[in-house]
Amino acid sequence: MSRILKYRELLLVAIIIVLIAAFSYRAPGYASPKSLANIFNDTSILIILALGQMAVIMTKSIDLSVAANLSFTGMAVAMLNAAYPGIPLPLLILTALAIGAILGAINGFMVWKIGIPAIVATLGTLTIYRGTAFVLSGGAWVNQTQMTPVFLNTPRMPVLGLPLLGWTAILVIAIVSVVFTRTIFGRSLYASGGNPTAALYAGVDVGRTKFFAFVLSGALAGLCGYLWVSRYAVAYVDIAAGFELDTVAACVIGGISTLGGIGSVGGAVLGALFLGVIKNALPVINISPFWQMAISGLVIIIAVLFNARQERRKGRLILRDAAKRRPSRIEAPVEGAAA
Amino acid sequence: ENIKIGLVVKSLGNGFFEAANKGAQEAAKELGGVDIIYTGPTTTTAEGQIEVINALIAQKVDAIAISANDPDAVVPALKKAAQRGIKVISWDSGVNKDGRILHLNPSSNELIGNMCLKLAADHLPGGKGDFAILSATSTSTNQNTWIAEMKKQLPKYPGLNLVTTVYGDDLADKSYREAQGLLTSHPNVKVIVAPTTVGVLAASQAVKDAGKIGQVYVTGLGLPSEMAGAVHSGATKQFAIWNPIDLGYSATQLAYRLVKKETDGKPGSEINAGRMGKIKVGDNGEAAMADPFVYDAKNVDEFAKIF
Amino acid sequence: MSIMTADKQSVRHIPDRLSTPIGRLLGSWETLLAAVAIAIFIANSLASPHFLDPWNLSDATYNFTEKAMIAFAMTLLIISGEIDLSVAAIIALASTAMGAAAQAGFQTPALVGIGLGVGLLCGAFNGLLVARIGLPSIVVTIGTMSLFRGIAQIVLGDQAYGGYPPSFAWFGQGYMSDFSWWPTLPGFEVVTFEMIAFVLFAVVFGILLHRTTFGRWIYAIGNNAFAAQFSGIPVQRTKFILFLMTGLMSGFAAVCLTSRLGSTRHTIAAGWELEAITMAVLGGVSILGGSGTILGVVLAAVVMGLVTFGLGLLNVPGIVMSIFIGLLLILVIALPIVFRRIRSRASA
Amino acid sequence: MSVVQAAAQDPTPLLEMRDISKSFPGVKALDHVDVALYPGTVTALIGENGAGKSTLVKILTGIYQPDSGEIVVDGKAVHFGNAEAAIRNGITAIHQETVLFDELSVAENIFLGHAPRNRWGLVNWSAMNARAAALLTSIDAPISPYTRLKDLSIAQRHLVAIARALSVEARVVIMDEPTAALSYKEVEDLFRIIDRLKRQGKAILFISHKFEEVYEIAERFVVFRDGRSIGAGLLSQTGQDEIVRMMVGRSVDHVFPKTEVAIGGTVLKVSGYSHPTEFDSISFELRRGEILGLYGLVGAGRSEFCQSLFGITRPSAGSLELEGRSIEIRSPSDAIAAGIVYVPEERARHGAVLQMPIFQNFSMATLAKTTRAGFLRQAEEFALARKYAERLDLRAAALSVPVGTLSGGNQQKVVIGKWLAARPKVIVLDEPTKGIDIGSKAAVHGFMSELAGEGLSVIMVSSELPEILGMSDRVMVMREGRMAGIWNREGLDAETLVRAATGNE
Ligand SMILES: Nc1ncnc2c1ncn2[C@@H]1O[C@H](COP(=O)(O)OP(=O)(O)OP(=O)(O)O)[C@@H](O)[C@H]1O
Ligand SMILES: Nc1ncnc2c1ncn2[C@@H]1O[C@H](COP(=O)(O)OP(=O)(O)OP(=O)(O)O)[C@@H](O)[C@H]1O
Ligand SMILES: [Mg+2]
Ligand SMILES: [Mg+2]
């Protein structure tokens, strides 16, 4: 039992399953495949953003500008689509990825070449990007009628019961998994955050790794800009306001250490799904709207508490025979002070 | 020296208020010698509006016409404005009595409440069935007033059954999720009434995505330009709104008359509002503009070009 | 010891400092910020004829006084290596509690006590989770941010609390000239209670951080919590106290803001957490912990207040203003780094 | 100055560093130094703390770029823009600081930066694990490549670091104080590996402050002093005294200047100290003016036990008596208040606050003494810092520079000085001279004697036998968390201690 639950990911899976079971008790049909596909589809954007955020957090940085990036890019492609309906969708999506990547690169450049702490740089660009979205649009909305049907409907097209939006998230998860586990860049991410000095000594360019982490995060935020606008069929300056904190919360719930170097793609995805399930379920099971915020806050705290208990240091065993005695003594207040 | 009127809105970047600004500019041009300062906070907060009001006071504007994020919180700042000789009125979303000379309702609250119920009943076969309300933030004054009116007048529509009220906070994603929640948890709900544009839009989208067009209808208050898509998709048959251009126009007219001392704005007075004719100030210093206008597939495109 | 002194020819003398006091002053962050503040002040007076009006300037201070009070406490917390994102939510909850008490007929002193008390409790809750249980503060306070404001929302729903006693209005709207002992010199009549509180807290926090053992502990913990613990510094207790202080200051800000608004809704002070953090960071506080000064934060508060008020006078929309704040933040952080690099390249 | 020349039978160097200079703000770390490394030869680089040894290593491995001078490999001038470039040129190093990744697996730690890839350019995990396993076997390290590094002991980590250094096709292997953290047994293993490398024709640069080791393993030497090369040559032709003179500029006669001190009554009595997993039933008495050596292999639990005396780790059983009164220590501040202080082993992590100025580090544990009613008095802080800086012969540009800019040995002096300022009754020194040059080591030892003479009781954890034998009045040995015995100094020999520590009775 304890060996299985050693893995944070499995614990999260268990918690999510318990939650869904509990919710479907209140709202029958909540656990139906259709409804679950729906939840996943709904959480897709958060998952994609969380994966970008994870790459950045992995390097001991943070990207607070993801939501602002999403807003700017979403506005930009929506305006492009409205102004030039002839531009084919793939080109627009590439544009979204490119704009997002450029905005990410601006963050990355400041962190890499100027040496501004990531949280400061992105706190600055958070307001700048959203402000620029306002300047770009003059504050006007881009409405459903102004956008082309292809632009709006493609992510909703169901394939095997799941809309393309959900498939996009699956594709991004797959790509990011390969990047993290199988590429030099992915391993550099772990190294740069885990021990920057050691990374330097190992020939990893920590600054450049951070830069590309920001570019990745930015490109994914740009993609989400398009996805968001098409999903909700409207573009305005305030979309996804405050979403940056959700992405950070998803990462941390998923076990990505804010100190860098620790975490897995599976963790980030599950963290995002966890938040998605909570957000989706509360309206469905008829919780008073006034209670929702407090409940989600409480749930986040509990999840973090659970995570922390899992992560408690096991302690080295110097005494050879201690391993045998350990289970009975584990309650002894011995770990406490050595925080 | 031109007369300076500060037109303070809930937040910048909202189509409704952009349209109101158009009306205000129109009135300014018509009256001559009037400068409109169109301003507001970034997000819909009272604190943000107070900073804006302070800036207007500092510029020594002649009048402030405000659509308030909070009827009470802006009162101290507006009182200070009044002390420095600035004429203060509220419009659209009101301010408490002691913070302004008069308040201009876009329409009477009873009429709006009634209109929302009528729209709901029209969408239901025989006017019978369950409906739910998807509002903006739980603090916004005008939505709350209308919801209260709807509840008050509900007995007039015996077939209608209000199941629940949820809040989308005027955020597209939250409203969408709340609408989705309504569809799942209340399968009997046949109509969602959203007295706010973001709400109607998001709910229409949710209904469409759930493949429930024709089973569940969305209606409420929204701008034609924003609602056209929903009407064409069939998620919405009809919706209503007053003309925000007229609202901005009238608010500017009223403020101008007060500055020019053509009226004191006391209850009972009738104020000249240019092309809108005379507006009468009622009890509580509240005035109403006109009935909301109903839009459907036939006329929505025509108006979508305007606002 | 005799053995060692025998072959030790001379004791090497190590100077206390490398640079002169003037050199340090010129190279310091605070000097840069003060220069920026003066430049903005001059630019504002040139750009708007309404700027140099004592009453207007007095109104302008409300743009930053309350946020700065939180920023002071936040500064200490950030230097110690933690952060509190729930400050604005604490304001909402404290304000709600005061509103409920006012409805129940409590008078001003009790209301102030309740506001401060709720702030303290919220701070204790954060402190418990972070300092005692050892959870990462950035996540804990993302959680409590929702929790505290969520409780306010449960209590208030779509309602608002008003009806505060008239005397309560003084904290957020009062002038010191309401007191007979206040000097009636010209210019002094525009001094508000909040300005006095701002200055007082700046001094208190400045002394606490820079002149006391406790302040030194904060720096040590922020730079190396292990070494601090190994030096006998009560790391967890210090962090707990810092969370308490941040909660308390949020409670105080709640008193001022509630008094200024005269009403409470659950959306009160939305988004202030990022503004308080921006203020601290602009003031030169290292977000990674370990360095920063209160003087810097005071100057940053004034700079941000001047920028928003100046741009407000020019009717620049708030969101465009925020572009300026963002640029200012990045520039003010980046310039010294770039200069230092250019200088060291020149000297090499 | 006598510079030993061994020109005649010189083979051609594999690698030469010519006229290298490097400055940091306020410090000239290297001043036109020359170093040559020869194939199949171990060259020892010797110098005081801060002489510039590690700086040279970092230049050689591409981490720093020299201000001037050139590096010549096989007669061709090369330039290393980053660490990767040096690795590509066959230069590999075990650095002085920990350069490993706690969260990654052993195999990844070994191959990070040069992992084997498959034909799509993706990391080939199975090849990587297989090669790591082979490498570890080749150095007799029974470690699974899949283990996460954080689950290894210090000694095992060291083996991983060695495996990492050997994982590239290197011709030059640099070891910056590889033995500082090792005990007798691991040092022997390391030397076997070095021997093998030598036979494979690799050029090795070996840095150590321990002369016995240098004479045992190295053929050639280079001495640095204050960033300049002072001498170079063959060790077989040069005596230790001469090298010390080159290094310090004077002779240091007494390496272990233990003065006889009258030993008083019992100060500290530890009875049955136990911990569920780290140590068990530790009991002994410590007397006034006594130096108790605590010997054991790395990982024997000495540090954990000492930390429990200081309130960092909580014991699960046992009691403590200080000067006849029973006390309980729950936190470091309790310990300090009682008069027990602890100088940790990992100074950069636990000892010094690297970013803070030297004078603030000195005063950190004794702030109460330099303050009045909780308010700081900076002049007194400086006075305190100056006093201990001079007594410990600290090398620093100013007392207000951050400790992080000091060399490793000088950082250790600051950490020790911090605790001396606390004027304790019992001082626990965990590997106090780890990584310290012999001049400073003598200073620290002299100081310990002096403190003992003043009536202070000292517990000195050390893995270095000569130090243990030279300095202690009594020696306690720990093995796998338990006491293996206590011996008086008289008639004690190294063999007894080693046998007790390893358990080979
Ligand atoms: N990054 C740096 N910034 C500033 N000064 C530095 C830096 N690195 C080293 N120094 C200085 O350069 C000098 C040489 O340091 P180095 O680390 O090379 O000494 P070392 O010979 O390895 O000493 P030790 O035996 O203590 O390890 C010291 O005075 C040190 O303070
Ligand atoms: N596997 C490990 N993971 C983390 N830290 C370790 C590990 N092994 C040892 N350490 C650290 O190294 C130090 C020494 O470990 P320990 O107390 O087990 O042995 P010791 O007998 O004191 O050995 P040493 O000869 O190194 O002093 C401790 O401070 C401990 O924190
Ligand atoms: Mg070194
Ligand atoms: Mg040890």
From TrEMBL, chain A:
It holds the Pfam family BPD_transp_2. Keywords: Cell membrane, Membrane, Transmembrane, Transmembrane helix. It comes from the Bacteria. It is found in: Cell membrane. It is a multi-pass membrane protein. The chain crosses the membrane at residues 36-57, 64-84, 90-112, 119-142, 162-180, 211-229, 260-278, 290-308. GO terms for molecular function: transmembrane transporter activity. GO terms for cellular component: plasma membrane. This is Branched-chain amino acid ABC transporter permease.
From TrEMBL, chain C:
Coiled coil: none annotated. It comes from the Bacteria. It is a multi-pass membrane protein. It comes from Microvirga vignae. It is found in: Cell membrane. InterPro entries: ABC_transp_permease. Keywords: Cell inner membrane, Cell membrane, Membrane, Transmembrane, Transmembrane helix, Transport. Its main location: membrane. The keyword Cell inner membrane applies. This is Autoinducer 2 import system permease protein LsrD. GO terms for cellular component: plasma membrane. Part of the ABC transporter complex LsrABCD involved in autoinducer 2 (AI-2) import. Probably responsible for the translocation of the substrate across the membrane.
UniProtKB/TrEMBL annotation, chain D:
Pfam families: ABC_tran (PF00005). One of its GO terms (molecular function) is ATP hydrolysis activity. Keywords: ATP-binding, Cell membrane, Membrane, Nucleotide-binding, Repeat, Sugar transport, Translocase, Transport. It is found in: Cell membrane. It is a peripheral membrane protein. The keyword Repeat applies. InterPro entries: AAA+_ATPase (IPR003593), ABC_carbohydrate_import_ATPase (IPR050107), ABC_transporter-like_ATP-bd (IPR003439), ABC_transporter-like_CS (IPR017871), P-loop_NTPase (IPR027417). Its main location: membrane. GO terms for cellular component: plasma membrane. Residues 15-251, 262-505 form the ABC transporter domain. Gene3D superfamilies: P-loop containing nucleotide triphosphate hydrolases (3.40.50.300). PANTHER family: CARBOHYDRATE TRANSPORT ATP-BINDING PROTEIN MG119-RELATED, D-ALLOSE IMPORT ATP-BINDING PROTEIN ALSA-RELATED. Belongs to the ABC transporter superfamily. This is D-ribose transporter ATP-binding protein. It comes from Microvirga vignae. The lineage of its organism: Bacteria, Pseudomonadati, Pseudomonadota, Alphaproteobacteria, Hyphomicrobiales.
